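Fold this complex.
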Amino acid sequence: MQLAERANGSSAEVLAIKLRDQTFGIDVMSVREIRGWTSPTPLPHAPNFVSGIINLRGVVLPIIDLAARLGFPSTEPTLRHAIVVVEVLDQVVGILVDGVSDILSISPSDTQATPEVASASSKAFIRAVVPSDSSMIELLALDAVVPAHSS
Amino acid sequence: MKNDAQQQQNIQDRLAFIELDDDACASIRSIKAILDRELPVALDLFYKTIQKTPETRKFFNSQKHMDSAKGSQVDHWKSISAGNFDQRYVANVRKVGQTHARIGLEPRWYIGGYAIVVEHLINSIVTEMWPKNSMLGRPKIGPGQVSASLSALIKAMMLDMDLSISMYVEAAEEARRKLEREAAQEAERVRAEEAKREALRQSEEEAANRERTAVLTAMGAAIARVANKDLTSRINEDLPPAYRELQTEFNAAIEQVETAMQQVVAGTGGMVSGTQEISSAADDLSRRTEQQAASLEETAASLEEITTTVKKTAQESAHARDTVSSAKSAAETSRDVVRQAVDAMAEIENSSKEIAKIIGVIDEIAFQTNLLALNAGVEAARAGDAGRGFAVVASEVRALAQRSAEAAKQIKTLISRSSEQVEHGVHFVSDSGRTLEQIISHVMSINEMILSIAHAAEEQATGLAQVNVAIAELDQTTQQNAAMVEETTAACHTLGQQTDELQRIVNSFALTQHGTSALRHTADHMSRKIAPKPLRASKPAQPKLKAASGGEKADWEEF
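Structure:
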C-alpha cells in the first residue's frame, strides 16, 4: 500500500513514533538512524529538554527529550526507549521517544492543517495532522523541534 | 422329939465326959461380964482377919452379912457365957454346923476363928483376973479361980467346937447318904424303864414286821405296774403312818416321772414337727443352692464372654496402636515429601526466573531486531525506488521481530503466572506441611489415648482374671455347700426316723388322760401334718408311724 502510494509520486514516507500514547510522524528523509537508549552525559546549563550528549561512533550527539520539548513532563528513559537520529539544517541530533512503531506512506490528500484554535507554538511544532482510523498522527515540524544554531 | 431327947442325952454325955459340971458352969458365969464385954472385940479381930484372907472373905457378900453373922455369934456366946448348955444351945450349934456344911466352910477356918477369939479372951481374962496389988483392998482372986474359969471356958469352947464340927460332919454324912440314896433310887428307876422299853420294843417290832409286809406288798404291786410302763401307778392303800412319807415320796416320784414322760411326749411331738421343718428347710436350701450354682454358672459364662470381649478390646487396641504408629510414620514421611515438594517448587521458581531472563534476552533481541528492521526500512525509504525490495524485506523482518516480541511477551506473562502459581503452590505446600504437623501431633495424642485404652483393657483383663478366680472359689464353695446340704438332708431324714422311733417308744407308756389329751392332740396334728408332705428318705417309715399312732389311740381309749 505504501509502495503503491509512493508509486504515485505524490505520497511521502513518514516514521511513526510513540510518545505518551500519541503517534507523531517524522519525515523519513530527515531520519539518519534509529537506535536504542544510551544513557547520555548531561550538559551544564542546557535547556530542560536537552537530556545531554552521547558518543555516536565518534560523533558527539545532543539528545532532545521530545516530551519536554513538546511541553509535556520529562521522560523517564528505559532500555525500551529509542533515540531517532535526525539531520535538520545540517545539524544532527537525537530525539528521545517512547518507541518507533512503523514507516507510513502519507499522501498529501490525507493531511489536514493544524487547527487554528491551537497556539502559535503548537502550530510551529505540528506541521499537519493525519487522521488515521480512530486515532491521529501529528506530523512534527523538525526545524521547530530542533532549536536553530546560535550561528 | 425323940431326936431332941437323944441329942439332949448326947450333950449330957459329952458334958459328963469333959467334966463340965455345974461348978465349971459357975466358973464360966463368974467371968461372964468379961466375956460379954470382950467377945465383940475378939469377934472384930476375927472378922478383920477374915476380911484380910481371900479364901474366907468370899463367904460374906457384904458388911451387913458379916454384921448379922457377928450378931448371931454374940447371941450364941451369951449362952456359953451363961453356962447354959441346954436344948436351945444345942439347936444353935447345930444350926451353925449345918450352915457351915451348907456353905462349904471347912472346919480349919472355924477352928482358926476360935483360936483368934480364944487368944483374945484368954488375954483379957488373964489381964483382968491376974492378982494385982492388994493395996487396993479388993477381994483377992486366987490363981485357982482363974485357972478354973479359963479351963471351964476352954472346955466350953472345945465343946462348942466339938458340937459344931460334929454337926458339920453329920451334915456332910447326911448329905453323902442322901446322895447315895438318890443314886440307888435313880438306878432302880432306870432299870424299870429299861424293862418297860424292851417290852414295848418287842411289841413294836412285831407290829412293824406286820406293817412292813403290808407296805412291801403295796409297793411291790405299784412298782410292778410301773415296770409294766404304767406311769399312772400309785400306792393308794392306807399305809401305816411310818410309811406315809415313803408312800408320798413314791407317789410324788412316779408323778414326777409321769410328768416328765408327758413332757417327753410333748417334746417328741415338737421334735417331730421340728425335724420336719428342718427337713423342709434343708430341701429348700438344697434347691436354692442348686439355683445358686446355676446362677453362678451363668455368671461365670457371662464373665467369660466379658473376658473375651475385653481381650479382644486389648487386641484391637494393640492393632489401633500399630495403625496409629503406621499413620504417624506415614505422616512423618509426608512431612519429608512436603519438604521435598517445597524444594521442588523453589527449583521451579528458579527455573522460571531463568526462563524469564532468557525471555528478556529474546525480547531484547526482538527489540533490537525491530530497530534494525526500522533502520533498514528508513534506509530503503531514503533509497527511493531502489530500496523498494529491501523495504519489503525490512518490513518482513520487522513483522517477525514484532511476532517474536509478542511471543516473548506472552511467554513472559505465562512465566510470571506460572511463578505466581508456583508461589501459591509453595504456600499451599507449606500449609499442608503445617497441617501435617498438626495431624502428627493429633496422631500422637491418639496414640497416647489408645495406649491408655490398651493399658485399661489390660487392667480390666487382670481384674477380670481375679473376678474369675473369685467366681471359681465361689463355685467351689457352692459345690461344698451343696454337698453339705445333701448330708444335712440325709441327717435330717435319719433324725426323722429316730424321732419316729422315739415317739413310738414314748407312746408305749401309759399316762394320765388329763395330762396327755393336749399332747395327743398335738401328736395327731403332727402326724396329720407329716402325712401330706413325707420326707423323702423316711417314706418307708410312714406306715409304721401311722400304725403307732393308731395303737396309741386304742391305748388311750382305755383310759
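The interface with chain A takes residues 364, 367-368, 370-371, 374-375, 377-378, 381-382, 388, 391-392, 395 of chain B (CB under 8 Å).
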